[in-house]
Design brief:
alpha/beta, Rossmann fold, nine-stranded mixed beta sheet, 18 helices, binds zinc ion
Length: 616
Amino acid sequence: MGYNIQNWDLIQSTKVSGTSKMKCPICTPTRKNKSDRSLFVNFTNGTAKCFNNGCDALFFKDSIQNSIVKESYTLPSQEWRNYTKLSDNLVKYIENERKIKQYTLNHFDITEESYYQPALNKEVNNIVFNYFESDTLVNKKYRSGNKKFTQSKNGKPIFYNINAIIGEEECYIVEGEFDVLALYEIGIKNAISIPNGANDNDNYWSNSEKYLKDIKKFYIATDNDESGNNVADKIAQRLGRYRCERITFEGKDANDDLKAGVLEKTIHNTSKYPVSGTFKVSDVIDNIFDLYDNGMPETIYPKHHSFGNLKDIFSVMRGHLITGTGIPSHGKSNFTEWYVLNLVRDYKMKVSFFSPEHHPFELHHTTFIEKVYGKNFFRDNDNCQRISKEEILRYKEWAEEKVYLTGTENGEFPTWDWLFEKFKEQMFNYGIDIFVIDAFNKLGFNGKGNRLEQINEVLTKLTMFAQMNNVIIFLVAHPTKMQKDLNGLYASPTLYDVSGSSDFRNQTHDGFCIYRYFGDGAEEKGYTTFENLKTKMKFQGEIGGVVEFDYHIPSGRYYEKFTEVPTYCLIDEPKEFEEEKEQKEIKPITPATPTEAFGITDPFGEKYEEENEIPF
Ligand SMILES: [Zn+2]
């Protein structure tokens, strides 16, 4: 096979964590330079690679087969060697159509196998991309001559060619196996492919985490089209923009540019993700033109009309820390959750909540479910039926890769350092866009110094984290005890009143206060106000601006005062977007086949649609 997998026990060391450069037990005996430490060992994740050219030994501490059984994936038959003899038709076809040579097919252990293609409802000949992790075949992707796809049943989702990045500092990420092969043709070996075309799922990220964690630089080389750009953004979101650059091809992808003879040039066509670090004008010139053509960047706000003119007085942006305050029991958590769930819906975002006050998790989810449907979880109310079990299942489908809850295990007391570690993990594993911390006082400090200094340090870290990772952080913070005015009402808190430090006012990008007027319980109905306490950019809203809301007790939803209780379901495609969608759907659409569901855009082109033209 393309990789020289060796036994971990040959590495003589008692270390269990950290990294080392050592002499390679495989090639050292036959080398002139017996003292060269060509073996890079990562004891923490249990991998090692020899960087002596021609040796390329790879070592894995853990048995992949055991882990597959433990994670209840199904191991495909390991008999792949039976199929490595490729037909002349296939080899010629790949060489002519894709400019990929036989030695590359051999290096990647491409096989040719007859296999059942669900889309064709029969067994046909396929080119097979074998997904190896260590020397274990963990998944197989079958591609028929007329570009139908299927994969082995319940295989382990992981990046294609993951072995190639062991010990590497840089890594190329592409959108298809043929692009990995294309890069190999120009001498780039450290390339991996997402397994499902332009789909971004959590599982293959979690399964590849240990191999990607220590990489210093990623070149994101997904397709040069809309879905390729979208998935590139999601990848950068997970990996951290500061260590990513985007490659733009002339054609659609790496294989296109290989065919056009320009790949060696276009592979250097990189641009940074502007978040931090040092930038030349050319790194941000596209953004400058974007400002010129489209004006100030679009801010983020809930789009449903039941929020009234809230978007005119307050909106948020990526990279911002937002502090929400309010007197206890005035609804600041409730409002924040309603606001955030709408952002999840309107912008297809993913959110992670750290809300120890709302334990246990299942109870917290019931409040989300109520907000999602606009109904009560426990009983019928106001002509609206209690949430059904079917709706709970539908919520599960919807929220599964969108809403995440974080808590400590074993009742440990959470600290800020612990939370930042969790956040980093979640960025990678789930590609989170919004973090909600409810509330500030539920975390212990790790730093030195007095309380004010520690608060200041945490706020600095939070703003840095938001900026570096291009995420939105909502921080719920309690005010100090407020004074009552002449009418016996508590004063509305400002950011200066947030307990502990005036740094809340200075450090947070944006801030708001939720204040509840309880009414007299008879004629006068209570209501809630949202006040903009701070917005960093002028175009985000109007500091001091206020919107009044009514509150729907059964569902926990807020809506503009004196308007109807909103009944929209957060799971349904937003109506506001429907017109746009209808216009796009003018083209005739064919029902999705399992192949399409697999999510790959085809590399073989349109011309082999007809079965009698199948090339191999
Ligand atoms: Zn070696």
